[in-house]
Amino acid sequence: MKKFTSEMVDDYAAKLLFSLTAEENKMVLDEFDVVDKNIDIINEIEGLSEIEPMTHTLDDFAFQLRADEATVSIPVQEALRNAAKTEGREIEIPKAVD
After folding, report:
1. 0.70 cut: is pTM over it?
2. Under DSSP, is residue 36 helix (H, G, I), strand (E, B) or coil?
3. How many whole angstroms separate alpha carbon 87 and alpha carbon 77?
């Protein structure tokens, strides 16, 4: 298995539109080392490759999709009537993230 490198971490960070300091990059690499060691321990479990992966945590999980039926909704102006501030068909809300 390929080990993560400092360059890989910087490249992934750049793709996510942020950058890391050298100290942060080292911290990420150290965390990946811990994850890799834990995966190695898991891979040592006898018979693990013979176990079928679960698709859901509950064995008796059953679901049924409802029929997709079109319904009449309220007019946009009525939906916007209780909003404190609007701009056209949109509701203006306070900024939540700096």
Report:
1. no
2. helix
3. 11
DSSP letter for 62, please: -
**Residue owning tokens 């064995």:** 59
Q: pLDDT tens, 50-76? A: 988 877 777 776 778 888 899 999 999
Over the stretch 74-89, which tens digit does the pLDDT of each residue have?
Answer: 999 999 998 999 999 9
**Residues 6 or more apart whose Cβ sits within 8 Å of residue 48:** 42
Residues 73 and 79: their CA atoms lie apart, in Å, by: 9
Q: Residue 20 has which token pair?
A: 């890391």
> Residue for token digits 């992934």?
12
